[in-house]
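anyone seen this seq b4? input:
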Amino acid sequence: MVEPKTKKTEQSVEEFIAGVDEKRRADCQTLIDLMREVTEDEPAMWGPSIVGFGSYRYKYASGREGNWPLTGFSPRKQNLTLYIMSGFDAYDALLGKLGKHTTGKSCLYVKKLDDVDMAALRELVEQSVAHMRSSSS
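predicted toks r here
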């Protein structure tokens, strides 16, 4: 079976964030604080560029399985990518309040946190984490 490419590592979150573009660093710290409060988990690096919180076990119909963070983010060059693992199907109302963003299957893309409503973002993360915890237990 193929090993997942992205796994939890021992890399320092603080060192990783220190190496992020100065303009993104404050947003990263805000996300760390928010996700730490919501999950009550400490941040950990997943692969070289994802800051994740908690974890859950997934298994695809193909038999492929592994672990992934309950939520997390990555400060990419174009956007902050937030991982909303439950997807977005149940969150139309929250997304309507969120502000400037785009989505992928489980990725929320924002240019900067100043572009979004932080209360709506917090609620989105809270609901997604609660959903993932209830569906993976």
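DSSP finds four helices and eight strands in the chain. Helices lie at 13-18, 22-39, 92-98, 118-135. kinda curious what u guys think
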